[in-house]
Amino acid sequence: MKKLAELFFTFAKIGLFTFGGGYAMLPLIERSCVEQKKWISAEDMLNITVLAESTPGPVAINCATFVGNKQKGFAGALIATLGMIIPPFTVIFIISLFFEKFVSVQWVSSAFAGIKLAVGILIIDAAVRMIKKIPKNALTYTVIAVAACSMLLIDIFSLKLSSLVLLLAAVGLGLVLYLVKRRTRGGNQV
């Protein structure tokens, strides 16, 4: 019971005090779950983030579910997920009741402008941390460069590409690279 309560309150705190969505929450999830509580390793966090990206739903909620499952199975997954969902839902519900009055207050509008900047910084921080943990080789740098150039070109030319198409292209590239790597090693090892 103590571990379940700890899972709930850890993710509730992250959910309550983080603006900007899942990507902005990743550094806080990593700090809490990897550095402070040592529930998962840094490699687990990287793998969980990739899995959370690949599965339907918000990345932070998926991360909470995976960490909770790793700690206490289904009950842990459920409790961690609820901890991540309930506080932000409650805050958004309360704000929605007073939204018109809320956004018309000048200091609130100014605060949200500052929050947008902070969210961008948190997302960049999450990306830099992940890049630092990946293997350092020519293939990795090539994949990063191709992905960055692709994103830039899609943005510059305002291409309307489905996320599903991009995800399937990344999966296809990953499979091709895996098969090439396996073949060059000369074995059928997985």
Sheet-strand content, in percent, reads: under 5%
What Rg do the Cα atoms give? 19 Å
Identify the overall geometry.
globular
Low-confidence stretches: none
Helices, by number, come to 8
Oligomer: single chain
What does this structure look like?
- There is one protein chain.
- By secondary structure, this protein is an all-alpha fold.
- Helices cover 83% and strands 0% of the residues.
- The longest helix has 39 residues.
- The radius of gyration is 19 Å and the shape is globular.
- It starts with a helix and ends in a 6-residue tail after the last helix.
- 23% of the residues are buried.
Set out the fold topology:
Layout: H1 2-17, H2 22-36, H3 42-54, H4 59-97, H5 99-104, H6 106-133, H7 138-156, H8 163-184
